[in-house]
What does this fold into?
Amino acid sequence: MNRKVGIVTLGCPKNLVDSEIMAGSLQDAGYEITPDHRSAEAIIVNTCAFIGDAKEEAIMSILEAARYKDEGCLKILIVAGCLAERYKEEIIREIPEVDVVVGTGSVGEIPGILNDKLGSGKNGQEIRARKPDSVDYLELTRFVSDSKPYVYLKIAEGCDNRCTYCVIPSLRGSFRSRSVENIVREARMLARKGKKEIVLVAQDVTRYGTDNYGRKMLVPLVRELGNVSGIERIRLLYCYPELIDDDLINEMKNNPKLVKYMDIPIQHISDRILKAMGRRGDSRYIKDLLTKIRRGIPEVVLRTSLIAGFPGETEEDFEELCEFVRESRFEHLGVFAYSREEGTPAGKMKGQIPQKVKEARRRKIMDLQKENVEKYNSTRTGRIYDTIVEGVAEDGIFYVGRTYAEAPEIDPVVYFTSPEPLETGMIVPVKIICPDGYDLVGEAQYGGNGE
It folds into this structure.
């Protein structure tokens, strides 16, 4: 056995963390993680299945990996993640090249599964899928190989929100928090690897601790993480609106390491649609909360996600959503055309909207948001921001970085020049010269202070 394993990761940052845990536990078991899939004896495709596009990407990635059974030395093909949890039997039945389907509750078993398969030489397909009811696998060795200055830290698994359009609770189980001690221990490890920004991720970080501590523990956790030497920034993804309270607002205002950035998935603003989505809170609560956050946290940056074309969404509902986007002026916003998912209450609702209409509504919201971004970026010209260096742009002239106002991977970036050579992970003051579409252009300052 050459004991080389390739891993393909699809979907969200939470899935990336799972892949890194797979890689770490496999290395502990004596396997080598390789980017050269042609030389791999086993390939794991860690899939997403949140919406239709993600499912299509996952299937294409599985089929692409399967080609190495004829072209390389691949013996074992494993499919893991949300698609595996959701369509176990279908994957086994429809893709004979797949050897093992591993559910979301069985991530920690992958080294043992590979040992069984490669050691015995047994043929035949298998499904390994325990009920996703534990977070123990998150305490396994995690392999972080990249040199990026930021890293995702998963603080909980699963979801209790039961939104009518979402399959996550059925794939990931109920909400389960890790302990503060284990999270801090992992943060120290990540800091030793040179990570400067910790991005806390879960389906709902504001719910953290309510299950195993009996109360919200996000603020105490943030304070503990702030004491970890080497960590300069802590960022939160994602804060559900109904659990954002005064304690969190005050902590974000006063804790210099907790960046003034909130990602609040609102999804809609029509009371009728919010109720149909199974969302807590109404439009008045949401608007009042946004006002409270902006008043309580100077310079706060808000991001949200919206769904266009939910079943039953009328022109009046959609116009109300458009007006909300105009008025609220989110600094960052993402919008999805509603994806009809089998097995969800929304998938069975009457009033399903044609795809062409959904896409047109999505585009209109993005056009409105572009105007918001242009107005926001125009206010930043001439200002100086502490900017974390992420590397050098492809042109070799500019550095690429992010201020507190940009989350990694999902938000725009700052391109800037520097008279002095810089290294990844450094935090330098950068003066914004001008916008460049959604991105910004600036120049490093020396002898000045960032803000």
In short: DSSP finds 14 helices and 19 strands in the chain. The chain has a mean pLDDT of 94.
